[in-house]
Design brief:
Elements lengths: L5 E4 L2 E7 L5 H22 L14 H24 L8 H21 L1 H4 L13 H21 L19
Antiparallel strand pairs: 1-2
Helix pairs in contact: 1-2, 2-3, 2-5, 3-5
Length: 170
């Protein structure tokens, strides 16, 4: 017996998803968001590439721009990978992945803004991205990547609602 043509979303019983349709708009929006997020991140890291003034250190405004770029890239990548679940229910591993992604971004934000929160070594008006803060941002990005790997959909994943019992011929 073949798979059903229409799948029901257990989270929203009124929503149905046609089996086999590919979410083109969500994928395009995710890829576009990734591209814009990378440009924003690149603007924060290397403003001289875009003809903007670059100081000797990475200051508060650059840190905010870097965090905006990382945030947009994270949000777009998460939306892109969720689109591959095609509106069906996600596995427990994927739910853990989304929470780990959010935790990684929180690690990035709080370590990058440690001076602004008063935890860093520089006094408050002189907020800088130092060595320890940049290592914390890298650790946060690694945690985000682990969460994105957990969000990947297995090739032959079928939820309980999609499993169709096979009838043996006797």
């Amino acid at each position: 017996m073949n798979q059903p043509d229409v799948l029901l979303d257990p989270n929203n019983p009124r929503k149905t998803v046609k089996a086999g349709t590919f979410p083109k708009f969500q994928v395009r929006a995710g890829l576009t968001g990734l591209m814009f997020g990378f440009l924003i991140l690149l603007t924060g890291l290397r403003p001289d590439l875009f003809g903007l003034d670059r100081g000797r250190y990475i200051g508060f405004v650059q840190i905010i721009v870097i965090l905006l770029g990382i945030g947009l890239m994270t949000l777009s990548a998460t939306g892109l990978l969720i689109a591959f679940w095609n509106g069906g229910p996600k596995s427990l591993r994927a739910d853990f992945g989304t929470r780990i992604i959010a935790t990684g971004y929180v690690i990035c934000a709080f370590t990058a803004l440690a001076d602004a929160f008063g935890f860093g070594t520089n006094p408050l008006p002189y907020v800088l991205l130092g060595t320890l803060q940049s290592r914390g941002v890298m650790i946060g990005i690694i945690v985000i990547c682990i969460g994105l790997l957990l969000l990947l959909r297995p090739k032959n994943y079928l939820s309980k609602e999609q499993n169709v019992p096979r009838h043996s011929r006797s």
